[in-house]
Structure formats: structure tokens, C-alpha cells
Specification:
Strand order of the largest sheet: 2-3-4-1-5-6
Order of helices and strands: EHHEHHHHEHEEEHHEE
Number of strands: 8
Distance between the termini: 32 Å
CATH topology: Rossmann fold
Radius of gyration: 18 Å
């Protein structure tokens, strides 16, 4: 719950390590709250009539920092926290410490080398000295991806990752995420936009009004009827080169 509002209700979900999954739903369906439940920024409210269980790597008890070191997260909320003058370089290094920028953290030479390599691979090393609030949305998003990947997570969670990206930045972002998926890192793509679902994603979960309404193979889930029911508008779904696009609304 958030305040007095029930955001998620009776959600049951299992995602395997290395799996590529999309969670698709309209705004307000509870997708971002589900992400925060996974990363333990929010916790479920216990109900004496229902089982509330969260398992990570098969265990129900673990150190939350161990969980977060296995995950990389890119989200609009995170990007908003970098409005002050933190350099792109420090943003990437902060991924080692799950912090917003660097304070009194001890950065080892190995960490610095890893950060430099990540920034080169994302083609943002030339921008490393610039503050985040002077970068374009697409450039800043790449630094957040670097932050999410620098500590070698097993799963990357992308929450509404293409918001505010123009066509050029969207093209670059898609390529980056596809490269990450092919490297063996699991992808959890949380979005309301059908075109965010990269070809490597094989499983799609639909969310509506705080519940999971469908979970299955991408080809079975992304149909005209299912998306019409989900978004409550007439939709025609068209696959093209591994992507899916919606029209007709």
C-alpha cells in the first residue's frame, strides 16, 4: 500500500536468473511499485489471511545489500535524484556503493578501471567530467546504465527506460540493452510502451490495476485482443524485425 491506497494485490511472480522478461501495463497499474518491492524499497503489508513471501536466490532471509549487488536498476526516479551537479564519472562509480554520487567512499584502482571500461563501452567516456544536469536525457540515461552495470549485476531492471528519449537516443538505447541481454545479464523491462520490448525478451507479463492479468510467451500475450483489454483502446499489433508495434488508437 501507499498511504491508504492499495497499489498491488495478490501478486505472485517468479523470474529466473538470466531470464529476459517484460512487464507491460498502463500508467498507474502498479509496475513501478512492483519494481520497488523487488528492490526492497517498499515492503508488502502482511495480511493474516494471505501468505506474504519474497524469495531471492531460493532464500527467504538475506542481506538486502546482497540483493542489490545482484541487481542493476535504471529508473526515472533515480535519474531525478541526480539533478544536482554530480559528474557522470561519479554517477558510474556510485553504482559500487548504491549511493547517489560519491561522498567518503573508498574507490579502489580496480573500481576506477572498471568504471572507465564501462564508460568506453557505452561511448560516454568523453562526457565523464560533465555534471548530469548538463547532459541530454539520452546521455544521462547511458550514465545510469553504466551505474547499473559497473558492479557486474546478474539482472538489469529497466523501469520506463525510454521516457523522454528522442528517436536517435531510443535507437542507441535499444542497441545497448540488446548487447547487455546477449552478454548473459537478465533483463526485466518495465514499461507501458510496446516498442521497448527488445527481440531478446521472450516472456511478457501484463499488469492492470495492481494485478497480474496475463503471463506467457511474447507471441501469445502481445495480441490485438489482449492489448485492447489492457489499455482499453482499439489496438492493432504488428510484429516487425523482432519488435512489436501498436497502431489503430
Amino acid at each position: 500500500m501507499r498511504g491508504n491506497a492499495t497499489v498491488l494485490r495478490r501478486v505472485s511472480l517468479a523470474i529466473h536468473e538470466g531470464e529476459h522478461v517484460a512487464i507491460l501495463g498502463p500508467n498507474g497499474s502498479g509496475k513501478s511499485t512492483l519494481v520497488k518491492a523487488i528492490t526492497r524499497e517498499l515492503y508488502p503489508v502482511a495480511d493474516c489471511e494471505e501468505d506474504v513471501t519474497f524469495r531471492f536466490e531460493g532464500r527467504e532471509t538475506w542481506d538486502v545489500f546482497s540483493l542489490r549487488s545482484s541487481l542493476g536498476v535504471v529508473s526515472p526516479d533515480l535519474q531525478l535524484q541526480y539533478t544536482r551537479g554530480v559528474s557522470g564519472h561519479d554517477v558510474v562509480l556510485s553504482g559500487f556503493f548504491s549511493s547517489i554520487g560519491l561522498f567518503h567512499h573508498h574507490v579502489t584502482p580496480e573500481m576506477e578501471e572498471r568504471a572507465q571500461n564501462i564508460m568506453k563501452s557505452l561511448d560516454i567516456d568523453r562526457l565523464a567530467g560533465r555534471p548530469m544536469d548538463t547532459l541530454s536525457t539520452g546521455e544521462a540515461r547511458r550514465f545510469l546504465i553504466g551505474r547499473a552495470l559497473v558492479h557486474g549485476p546478474r539482472t538489469l531492471i529497466l523501469d520506463e527506460p525510454t521516457n523522454s528519449l528522442d528517436l536517435s537516443a531510443l535507437h542507441t538505447f535499444r542497441k545497448l540493452v540488446r548487447d547487455v541481454a546477449r552478454s548473459g545479464v537478465g533483463i526485466i523491462m518495465v514499461t507501458h510502451a510496446l516498442h521497448d520490448i527488445i527481440p531478446e525478451i521472450s516472456r511478457v507479463i501484463l499488469m492492470k490495476e495492481g494485478r497480474i492479468t496475463m503471463d506467457g510467451r511474447k507471441e501469445d500475450v502481445l495480441t490485438d485482443r489482449n492489448l485492447q483489454d489492457l489499455f482499453r483502446v482499439p489496438v492493432r499489433v504488428r510484429p516487425e524485425n523482432g519488435y512489436y508495434y501498436a497502431s489503430g488508437y
